[in-house]
Write a structure and sequence with these properties.
Layout (H helix, E strand, L loop, with lengths): L2 H8 L6 H11 L4 E5 L2 E4 H17 L7 E5 L4 H13 L2 E5 L5 H11 L3 E4 L4 H8 L7 E4 H9 L14 E7 L7 E6 H13 L12 E4 L6 H12 L3 E4 L5 H9 L4 E4 L1 H8 L14 E5 L5 H10 L4 E8 L4 E6 L17 E2 L4 E5 L12 E6 L6 E2 L3 H7 L6 E9 L5 E6 L4 E3 L2 E3 L1 H8 L5 E11 L3 E10 L7 H9 L10 E4 L13 H9 L8
Parallel strand pairs: 1-10, 3-4, 3-5, 5-6, 9-10, 9-11, 11-12, 12-13, 24-25
Antiparallel strand pairs: 1-2, 7-8, 8-18, 13-14, 14-15, 16-17, 17-19, 19-20, 21-22, 23-24
Helix pairs in contact: 2-3, 2-4, 3-4, 3-7, 5-6, 10-11, 11-12
């Protein structure tokens, strides 16, 4: 590790965004922090602009503990507003731009957001939704917000502390409504220090390194990349949304680190341009959030032979990665460990527990449970859901069934809860079933995930028709798309005479899934 690497990687152990931005503005004021479409923002500028955005918050009556929202694609403007919010302790709520208006309205109502910052293409949608909300939150176009902020003088403020919440990310819930996982400064930043102290190679950053941010910012796999980049004082190359061409161009343009979901990775390695792309800049590729077929992983390793592959397993509630499969466990020919989710990163405890909430012997299947400083303190305004997920000793119950081997590697077997992961997006059957249930031809519906070469899994609706009715698959899909985001709507529909049930009447989704998964491995990335 070189001298500049030492400077960038171990110089600080700050646990708040305010301290980190102040630090890098002092140490590397002219170094690029954000780059997008030819626009560069240095660390000195990011420090200054984010302080002025705090003055903008004050002007609009937004104070520590209040919620603000972002509706738009990935943007350097989003990042600056996020930095300001995290400095002050205002809680940023990024909303998936692919969500339907009723879903956007639910999140905005749940948060009580005072301001909605919107990308240029989403201002009309934001205003339309906001008009029907209690309090009618103000909508500000992101570019206008930055322009307005830069005309204001910075103000004195009380910076957020380590445990103050700064981000609220929504994750779909089994009840059909999404839940807001509240994340603090320390949740975002403490594991970085543990990894540095352990001298993990992929925690070592050089001054010229660059993090590619192409995954959506409404997910921890998108916003979390801004967090990693800024914490380590490197530049973030921001792309509005994922495209395989964009990723390949960014790698040739200097991206050294990135995170990608398997469906997107497949598009990259199978793109015609991949054969002639120079991947030498890319030092580490992190992947996860969905099932990764072993053959695809082997193809990616062959395509990028000098890149370190790193599987990252985690969830929104753990602020992302809590278990990792390091590069040395990847090989061109494939191996057993490449089927695993790796082992706990420094600072994290992982146990596989049985029904009595005690650890099982190695090799036995149980629920994967996590204790980590990155664990959320809970869900926004949902104490019962929080208590169901995080026990009294601080162990977070993931809902994933897994096995741990003697070396501590975790192999995810299935989902205890019936969540479907399609292209890196989390979909819960109850949410889709609720959207389909009112269809005039359908008596009952159960939603399952089935294998997909492109997306890992696809959503399938199994429908029992009402007596005398005929179910038209295209009409069901269209009906669902009017009520929920397109990625949640079923890709296919099966018409069945009756639902399989257990003696207590619960629908047996596993029985519905079984024929489709015969011969397939169903694992969580």
């Amino acid at each position: 590790m070189g001298e500049s690497n030492d400077m960038a990687q171990v110089q600080h152990e700050h646990l708040t965004y305010d301290d980190i931005l102040t630090h890098w503005a002092s140490e590397r004021p002219g170094a690029p922090a954000l780059e997008q479409e030819g626009r560069t923002t240095t660390y000195g500028e990011a420090d200054d602009i984010s302080r002025r955005i705090i003055a903008l918050f004050d002007k609009h009556g937004v104070a520590k503990g209040d919620r603000i929202a972002w509706l738009g694609k990935n943007s350097d403007r989003y990042a600056l507003i996020l930095f300001a919010a995290a400095r002050l302790g205002v809680v940023m709520v990024p909303i998936g731009w692919r969500l339907a208006p009723p879903e956007i309205a639910y999140i905005l109502t749940d948060t009580g957001a005072k301001l909605i910052f919107a990308g240029a293409d989403f201002v009309d949608t934001a205003k339309q939704v906001a008009a029907d909300l209690p309090g009618t939150p103000q909508v500000i176009e992101a570019e206008d917000a930055i322009d307005e902020a830069q005309k204001l003088d910075p103000i004195d403020y009380d910076p957020a502390g380590e445990d103050d919440p700064v981000i609220q990310l929504y994750t779909s819930g089994t009840t059909g409504n999404p839940k807001g996982a509240v994340l603090s400064n320390a949740n975002l930043l403490r594991l970085r220090i543990e990894g540095n102290n352990a001298r993990l190679a992929w925690h070592e950053y050089e001054d010229e390194d660059a993090m590619l941010v192409a995954m959506p910012c409404a997910h921890i796999g998108g916003t979390g990349l801004f967090n990693i980049g800024v914490a380590n004082g490197i530049r973030c190359i921001v792309q509005a949304e994922f495209t395989p061409e964009g990723v390949l161009e960014a790698i040739e343009g200097g991206a050294t680190h990135m995170f990608i979901v398997p469906a997107a990775l497949q598009m990259v390695v199978q793109h015609p341009r991949a054969a002639t792309t120079d991947f030498s800049n890319l030092r580490y590729l992190m992947y996860g959030a969905a099932p990764m077929p072993l053959e695809l992983l082997k193809e990616a390793v062959r395509t990028m032979p000098n890149t370190g592959f790193l599987q990252a397993y985690g969830m929104t509630e753990t602020t992302g990665t809590i278990s990792a499969l390091p590069p040395e466990d990847h090989s061109l020919e494939g191996n057993q460990r490449m089927r695993s989710a790796g082992k706990a990163v420094p600072g994290v405890e992982i146990e596989v527990r049985g029904g009595n909430n005690t650890e099982l012997p190695r090799g036995e299947i149980g629920e994967v449970c996590i204790r980590s400083p990155s664990n959320t303190a809970g869900y926004w305004n949902l104490p019962e859901a929080t208590a169901e997920t995080i026990d009294a000793d601080g162990w977070l119950h993931t809902g994933d069934a897994g096995v741990m081997d003697e070396d501590g590697y975790v192999y995810i077997q299935d989902r205890i809860k019936d969540m479907i992961i399609t292209g890196g997006e989390n979909v819960y059957p109850a949410e889709v079933e609720s959207a389909i249930y009112g269809h005039p031809s359908i008596l009952e519906v159960a939603v399952i995930g089935v294998p997909s070469e492109k997306w890992g899994e696809e959503v399938k609706a199994c429908c029992v028709p009402k007596p005398g009715a005929t179910v038209d698959a295209d009409d069901v899909i269209r009906y669902a798309r009017e009520r929920i985001a397109g990625f949640k709507a079923p890709k296919s529909v099966d018409v069945i005479p009756e639902m399989p049930r257990n003696p207590s009447g619960k629908i047996l989704r596993r029985q519905l899934r079984a024929p489709y998964w015969e011969g397939h491995e169903r694992q969580v990335g």
